[in-house]
Amino acid sequence: MRIFSKTEIMKMVRHVYARGNDKFDNRLLHPSREWGIGLFIFILILLGGSVVGAQSFNQFRQLDTNVGESDATIPRYKESLVNEVLETYQARQANYERLAASAPVLVVPAATTSSSTASVIDLESTATPTATSSEPAQAESVSETVNDVDVVEADNQVELVE
Amino acid sequence: MTRKTHIIFIFSVVLVLVSITTFAVVSIEVDRIGALLKERVQMVSNKYALEQKFIELNELIETTRADREALNTYVMTESKTISFLADIELIGTQQGVEFNTLSLNVAEMDTGPDLLSVQFSAVGSEVAVAKVLEILETLPYESTLTELSLTREEQSTLTVGVTLSIK
Fold first, then answer.
1. Which pLDDT belongs to residue A27?
2. Residues 19 to 58 of A: which have CB under 8 A from any B CB?
3. Domain contains A123
4. How far apart are CA B24 and CA B18, in angstroms?
5. Is the predicted pLDDT of residue A37 greater than 80, yes or no?
6. Range of A138's domain?
7. pTM for the whole thing?
8. Are the Cβ atoms of A56 and B131 closer than 8 angstroms?
């Protein structure tokens, strides 16, 4: 094996340095290939950037303020049910008022009649509760003062036993 | 390769790297701000949606006001209790029945109005008592006669004990 001397090694280094520095091997130069590689890299970067940009655009282009959600719930108003309830209670109230406004029930003792039964009569509003006295004479006088005495609730006749 | 070409090459590579880095940084920043914007837009949207529901609820309240007020007249409230008892006693008096209120309890319900429980006794003729009971059955409230006891004191006099539950 040959051993290079220091002078020879330095000469070889200077030779390589000189060739690499300003005298490139023309056989290795291909301008169109280098340009092609450069253009390829440029297009690659352009495409990558375009994809990233398009993705960002697509991500944020559909920002709509009309698609919000709220946890608040509005109770459903059942109008038909409300109307039905109102009708029911209005009818009930009318019935209540009719009954409450009707004249009090008066029991007329049997002494005023030939039989031993008493008639249940409904006095007009002019009659006072004191007219319900069980004394025959008083009840008679009441029945005399009230001209238009209608016998009502005949089924509710009550027998009085003195 | 000349020195000039070498410098241009290095400069080009540095320029490309700087451009790519800048683009990456800008893209990341755009994404970050975009996400923030998206979040804010969602908040605004939710606020709009809530506002819309508030408007709808307001309209519902306005359009149903008359019905609700009408319904409220058929619901027993604490403020109506005294006048209700006075009315009942007045009706009893008018019908010739002597009323005595024995107890009055208000029970709070989990849902809906409170439950008013009234216990009273009434003394009068059979027919008058029957009529009073009929009136009580038609009370314009959600009422239930939970207890009813009839005692004949005399031939024509009845004592009735009633427990009435009203909502």
1. 65
2. 22, 24, 41, 45, 49, 52-53, 56
3. yes
4. 10
5. yes
6. 104-159
7. 0.54
8. no
